[in-house]
Structure formats: structure tokens, C-alpha cells
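Q: I'm a student working through a structural biology exercise. My instructor gave each of us a protein and asked us to get a predicted structure, then write a short paragraph describing it. Mine is Transcriptional regulator. I'm not confident about reading structure output yet, so if you can add a plain explanation after the C-alpha cells, that would really help. Here is the sequence I was given:
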Amino acid sequence: MTSDRRAWGSLESEIMAVLWAADGPLSPAQVQQRLDGERAYNTVQTILTRLLEKGRARRRASLAGGRGHEYFPAEDRATAAARSMRAALDGPGDRSAVLRQFTAELDPADAELLRALLRESAEGAP
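A: Happy to help. First, here is the predicted structure for Transcriptional regulator. I'll explain a few features afterward.
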């Protein structure tokens, strides 16, 4: 069962990548097509519904009419990544150990960027 959960999480990530890359809302069929048709339509629809329930995606009535919906991201990629990082920090375990490990694995350019952002934050810059 654990591997199923990982697979679904992976597919959720793939579908979110498709939604983020799109110029606007997409129907389930359009999402399926952009996944190179590798997933069944029903699978794509199920994952879109789960993303909607989790608040990661939103939908609107299809502009083409009918009963269909078009889906789009509830937040941009950077906001979603920051939320995931925050959830990891808020999870069980030693917060300082998590931050220490994270910063130890940063390449020098990212470490410098993080230092600059922390300075800006401390100075009250937007």
C-alpha cells in the first residue's frame, strides 16, 4: 500500500507540473494529452478531483459548455514549494536538525541567496 501512495503522489506531481506549465485552465482530456496519453482518462480525472479536495487545484465550468470542468493550480509553484518546506519544518523531529541538514546540502550560490533573503527579511524589506 505504501508504494501505491508514492505512485499517486508522483502522479499528483506530474499533473500539477502540467497545470503550472499551461497558459490557462485545462480539461481532464487536455491534461491527459499533455501527459502523452500515458494515463487513463479516469485516472487523470480521479487525481484532479483529489487535487481539488486537497486545495492544490481549482476548477471552473468549462467554457466549451456542457457539464465538464477545467482545472488550474490553486497557487503558483513557488508558493506550493514553500508550503511543503514549512510542513516539513512543522512535522515531528528536531527542527534545527532539519534546517542544518537542508543548509548543509545547498550549493554555494543557493546558500548565498538564502543569506541575502534572510538579511532582507531581518531588515524588513519586502
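A: Here are two points you could use in your paragraph. The longest strand covers residues 57-61. Residues 2-21 form the longest helix (20 residues). It's a good idea to check both against the output above yourself.
Q: Great, thank you!
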